[in-house]
Amino acid sequence: MKGTVHLLSRRQVLVDLGRGAIAVAVLGSAAACTGEDSPPPAGAGSPTSGTSPVPSMTEPVPEDPVTWKRAGFADVSAYVLLRGSQAVVVDTGESEDAVGEIEKALTTAGGSWDAVRHVILTHQHPDHVGGLDAVLARATRAVPAVGEADLSGVLSSRPLTPLHDGDELFGLRIIGTPGHTPGHISVHDPDTGLVVVGDAMVNLGGLSGSMPQYTADPEQAAASVRVVAKLRPRTLLFGHGDPMTRGTAKQLDQLVASL
Ligand SMILES: [Zn+2]
Fold this sequence. Notes:
By secondary structure, this protein is α/β, with parallel strands linked by helices. The chain is built from 8 helices and 13 strands.
């Protein structure tokens, strides 16, 4: 088993997530790879938790279509994506104060902290990752993940899984959308045409690209907008601004034309 694990690339590790027992051993390897960049797990599997830290790896992902709920805070939003009895949290707000809104989104959608299998961070900025440890303390079965190039910028109480363009987890596709930060990622559900774009775009008084004052590489950020537009999404979920569920492709085309 161990020999097999060593033959797998990081990408294969992620592709295999949630698809069977083999991923248990594989994930252990992936977590070890991140050990230098992340603090060791704190409290994982503690006697008080009463649950294994990563049981999500032993059960299949439900085939139910993805539904979503917004957890909106003062300035930034996180999202809960649900598939049947399982859930993913995308971004975690700027502090532990975000936990209440995320919990509300989960329960409103019929889920619970126990349902959360992954916490995906779109990027390393504090207003998106500040609530991470508070979320992980409650979502004891969740594995946190972030784009590899942003990994060193995130502090986490559990090892972070590095994500790359084209990776799949929870039946979702990771889209590399760098520019806002080097490791910025978006989360795409091809079946429903949903894309969680983090800060690759904002919807504040209309759709626009990554906010210039917070953008590491403007050229890259513009290219990432084009990448998302090519997906022809029906729904865009933003870190900043209201979700876009109508006329999305047309508004994206207009944005691309203005870049
Ligand atoms: Zn940001």
